[in-house]
Amino acid sequence: MPSPRIFDRELDQHRVLAIDGGGMRGALAVGILSHLEQVLRSKFDDPTLVLSDYFDLIGGTSTGAIIAAGLALGRDTNYLRELYHRLGPEVFGSGAPRVPLFQSKFDPRKLAGVIHRELGDFTLETADWRTGFAAVAKRVDTGSVWVLSNCPHSRYWNGDKASPDIKPNKDYSLAKIVQASAAAPFYFDVVSLDVQEHKPGVFFDGAMTPYNNPVLQLAMAALVPQYGFRWAAGAERLLVVSVGTGQARPEQPAWVNQPVVLPAWKAIHALTALAYDTSQLGISVMQWLGESPQRWRINGEVFGLEGALPRCAEALWTFVRYDAPLSHDWLKANLGEDFRPAQIASLAKMDDHHMVPELFRVGRKAGIGLIQPGHFNGFDPRPKEEAPAKQGAGVAPNAASSAPAASSG
Q: Half-sphere exposure (CA, 13 Å, Cβ side) for 60?
């Protein structure tokens, strides 16, 4: 488990990295993160720095949970780029025919196999974390949203004295947690996770919650006492960085002149729109209640919320958002990319593994355009001696990180 100093409530500053869900569009987030890693290495003059050396909590939803787990274990973004090239064909490639409506679109055993191979037989406690980790999943049988972290101060880390049959969070399988967060309905089956003796909980993708973009939930986890972190608020004490996977506004202009829309299409669109709207709400609240060195457009009425903090309040954090919304106008205006509608539609799919190289390229280009060294002024990395000295545990033997053998961070 991480050094206790990582979760030290008395430290002056903390840094949080939140990564959205989005299936294979996770490759776009990896592109952004690769440039973020480069910027931090250059700014702090440390060519071996990986993101776990800088951030005190790295969390995500769905594909973001896969990325967050790798980063929190000390792996670099080159490893993640290679992972998405391997993961795509193996999980989303052709296989045995599946029965629509009766089976998920893809064989969940393939996703489970990849995640288990990469993360190994470790629990939240036994994995050799380099920093804090959290994943968001939806528990279906109780209808609740779960935020599972490696914070040893969380309420159920050691179980519940009042209910001895409850399994301690520290004993949960890391691979199962990540699989549960990434088990998108229709694409994969639900995942069973033992939460009580002889009583499993049933989970699916955390994207089926208001936290497909988990930034607001992770900021709350850092500050709300019940989650165990209890870090200090303040624009100079808490930095929150949010990285997206390219989700664009779910527009349906053709419906204006379409008298009848099939109920199934309306339902699918409503779900997609909900994920987008809750993401925008989270970004709005983060900008509203904090300081942001880079405005992020919400809509035509609200373009950044600087100066909107209530007079009676002080900024809770410094917040910055990096993403590359897959819309023609945004890509043309910000990246100079004049994609055809068919190209954008292919990039926007959650399950098209052929688009991984292009998604990474777009994300990398967005990172170059958006990320500025000044965004991290006043937030230096943790001193190296504060990280665990042990290296190598908590990583499956055939999934060694391609990160340099960095000094512990």
A: 27
